[in-house]
Specification:
The structure holds 2 protein chains of 2 kinds.
Chain A lengths: L2 H6 L1 H5 L1 H32 L5 H29 L18 H4 L2 H9 L2 H22 L10 H6 L4 H31 L6 H13 L4 H12 L4 H8 L14 H26 L2 H9 L4 H30 L2 H7 L6 H9 L10 H30 L2
Helix pairs in contact in A: 3-4, 3-13, 7-18, 9-13, 9-15, 10-13, 11-16, 13-15, 14-15, 15-18, 17-18
Chain B lengths: L1 H5 L7 H4 L6 H4 L3 H25 L12 H5 L6 H33 L4 H13 L2 H11 L5 H4 L2 H25 L3 H10 L4 H12 L1 H17 L2 H5 L5 H9 L3 H40 L1
Helix pairs in contact in B: 4-16, 6-10, 6-13, 7-10, 10-13, 11-12, 13-16, 15-16
Classes of the chains: A mainly alpha, B mainly alpha.
Chain lengths: 387, 289
């Protein structure tokens, strides 16, 4: 399932299912956990003035157990209710906690960093090295001399054409997916939260957003392919799809297929934002004399604009990076950038241009990277009011 | 934007709807909304129905529906070996992912909370680098590595761990933020537990739902990944499915539906876990107190 879409991009982003569900609580939880941690150690600071967690933990333990148990309770309830306010509950020891983190000696911190070494090394080798190899090879010819010819070849035809097609497909499927997904989200958020429709749609979108890649291609071949079920239905109704210019591997077909994972992904991303619009805001606006139109124009719209734009970018990156679905639908004949890279990798390239695949890869990293950074920034902006 | 939000279905916004619940509005479900939902349902269900129908031989004329493709699947050349390869890769990916990430995340929360933003950024990097590009880079970067790694499932396991980082980070981060980690660890350490013991017997049991959902997502990813395996010319179940599709559409579609149902089952488990987490956590913490 997760081949193209999920694996490539959205798996990460697409994850918004649990992540987005958690995000409203995240800041509250985070601060609660912080509070719990520092309250616990503040307790020990009470008892032993030379509080250095490793040294005193043992001796102060019995004394601080009461207070830390206390804070455990608060942390739990804070996390679940999502209101930051309760974290301030036990205000007594709290005054002691601010200066704590700063007191930790420098050397310990440096040693602490060693704990991240395995992770850092792993990412550097298995993600950093391939990315570095692509970027450097993009500027080298076959003999290893520096050159710009790969990059210039990558922006000329036939590769320029594939960028145009890829971007067209990504924009179309992202815009349509975002608008349709939002429409569905609005329609569903009108239903009761614990009702069947709401639950079915959230569960299904959590599953379908990861459903790209190979299986999706075969599912649509069985539906709208030459021998597909719907094709046969339409044939018997006297309508021949192919004669009307529709095949699964042209632009319209690919957009139709991509929407199958774009719409659920949109739902996953936009649901928390839609649910985060508090009824009180509309009530306040209405009671101050705003019409529905004015409310959406001045309050709801501006609030939803950043998450909507962010979702749009995410869907774009998702479609732009997807490989498996388009490949399996067309057995590699659609001129999309990822498919061009794949065909260069399998030796399907002019002599002397072997590194042009790396140049194409570099440009993909630039495009997708910029889009993902913009998405992250927009998402952070949303997180400010979404809790 | 505004028009889109306020109108497409003519539905009320969630805001006004909730207070109005139970009054006249609920009793007359909007026709527009119902039609919209039905259209979406058709778009999402018809292809699935068509695919199942196709695997049951519905496209062959003069023959009724039959299970023969499904039952014959096991006897297809390469089916069992490739399925086993993919299952092994999935297990290896999940194991390596957890061995790498659980200690790292616990350490991060405990000792280096100010570094969380940075590590999150690193974990999100695989989103910004398409799998095709990673595959291309693997060929260049590991040219000098032994064939036993780069020419086998090992390289896939190692790279799938990278692809799984984004959702693993989020899942573990949410799990660790929800427990009083510092208190628990200090308590365990003060009672004489070593670091590994603390991790294994205190931290891991407390975030087991987060670990389970990250693991399931990782397994689903490893089972279905096609791009990297295909471009590195390695044989996995999805790659086999694609090759089978060039000869026999029915076999390939059946195999694809098998991956699909397997990963859906896994993903359903995740959403079940996610619901369980919000429902069960608070009482459990209270009990521990």
């Amino acid at each position: 399932m997760s081949t193209a879409a999920p694996a490539d991009v959205p798996a990460g982003v697409g994850e918004p299912a649990p992540a987005a569900a958690a995000s409203p609580l995240e800041s509250a939880r985070g601060s609660a956990a912080d509070g719990a941690g520092s309250l616990g150690s503040a307790g020990s600071a009470d008892n032993a003035s030379s509080a250095d967690s490793t040294g005193t933990a043992g001796s102060a333990d019995s004394a601080s157990s009461a207070s830390s148990a206390d804070s455990t309770g608060t942390a739990g309830s804070t996390g679940s209710t999502g209101s930051t306010g309760t974290a301030d509950g036990p205000s007594g020891p709290r005054t002691l906690r601010r200066p704590r983190p700063a007191r930790r000696p420098r050397s310990t911190r440096r040693r602490d960093l060693l704990g991240l070494a395995p992770f850092a090394a792993y990412v550097a080798v298995f993600l950093g090295a391939p990315a570095y190899a692509v970027i450097t090879a993009a500027f080298q010819d076959n003999a290893g001399h520096a050159t710009l010819s790969n990059v210039t070849a990558a922006v000329e035809d036939p590769y320029r054409h594939s960028f145009v097609v890829s971007i067209e497909l990504s924009v179309l499927s992202a815009v349509l997916g975002a608008v349709l997904g939002l429409a569905l989200a609005v329609a569903v958020s009108g239903a009761r939260r614990d009702g069947f429709v709401h639950r079915a749609v959230t569960t299904a979108s959590g599953v379908l957003a990861y459903f790209g890649g190979l299986p999706l291609a075969f599912v649509f071949l069985a539906t709208l392919g030459p021998q597909g079920l719907v094709t046969r239905w339409l044939n018997s109704a006297g309508y021949n799809l192919t004669q009307h210019g529709f095949v699964l591997w042209n632009m319209a077909g690919l957009v139709l297929v991509y929407l199958y994972f774009q719409i659920p992904l949109m739902l996953l991303v936009i649901f928390p934002a839609l649910d985060g619009l508090r009824p009180q805001w509309e009530e306040a606006a209405r009671s101050l004399g705003a019409s529905r139109r004015q409310y959406w124009l001045r309050i709801g719209g501006p609030l939803l604009a950043p998450p909507f734009l962010g979702a749009l970018l995410l869907l774009f990156a998702n479609a732009f990076a997807a490989y498996a679905t388009a490949y399996a639908l067309s057995t590699g004949s659609v001129p999309l950038v990822p498919i061009q890279i794949g065909s260069v990798m399998s030796g399907n390239v002019l002599a002397g241009q072997e590194n042009v695949g790396n140049a194409l890869g570099l440009m993909m990293i630039v495009v997708v990277g910029l889009v993902v950074v913009a998405y992250t920034l927009l998402q952070r902006r949303t997180a400010r009011w979404l809790r | 934007m505004t028009a889109v939000v306020s109108d497409p279905t003519g539905t009320q916004s969630p805001a006004t709807r909730r207070p109005a619940a139970g009054r006249t509005r609920r009793r007359q479900p909007r026709i527009g909304r119902t039609i919209l939902l039905l259209l979406f349902a058709a778009y999402f269900f018809v292809p699935l129905y068509a695919a199942v129908d196709f695997t049951l031989g519905g496209s062959r004329r003069n023959m009724g529906h039959t299970l023969s493709v499904w039952t014959g699947l096991v006897h297809q050349d390469g089916f069992t070996t490739n399925l086993m390869t993919s299952l092994k890769i999935a297990v290896g990916t999940v194991a390596l992912l957890m061995i790498l990430m659980v200690p790292t995340m616990a350490w991060l929360h405990l000792r280096l909370p100010h570094m969380r933003r940075i590590v999150e950024g690193i974990c999100l990097l695989p989103m910004a680098i398409p799998a095709v590009v990673i595959a291309n880079g693997i060929l260049g970067a590991f040219k000098s590595w032994p064939q036993a790694i780069t020419g086998s499932s090992w390289i896939l396991i190692l790279e799938y761990v990278i692809l799984a980082l984004p959702f693993t980070y989020r899942s573990l981060d949410a799990g660790l933020s929800a427990i009083p980690l510092a208190t628990l660890v200090e308590a365990a350490r003060s009672l004489g537990a070593s670091w590994p013991t603390t991790l294994w017997r205190v931290v891991v049991p407390n975030i087991r739902t987060a670990i389970a959902s990250a693991g399931i997502l990782g397994a689903a990813l490893a089972l279905g990944e096609f791009t990297i395996a295909h471009l590195l010319l390695l044989n996995t179940f999805p790659v086999w499915t694609d090759q089978a599709g060039q000869q026999d559409g029915e076999v390939a579609t059946t195999a694809a539906m098998l991956i699909l149902f397997l990963s859906w089952l896994l993903l359903m488990l995740v959403s079940q876990f996610a619901r369980g987490r919000t429902a069960k956590k608070p009482p459990k913490l209270r009990r521990e107190k």
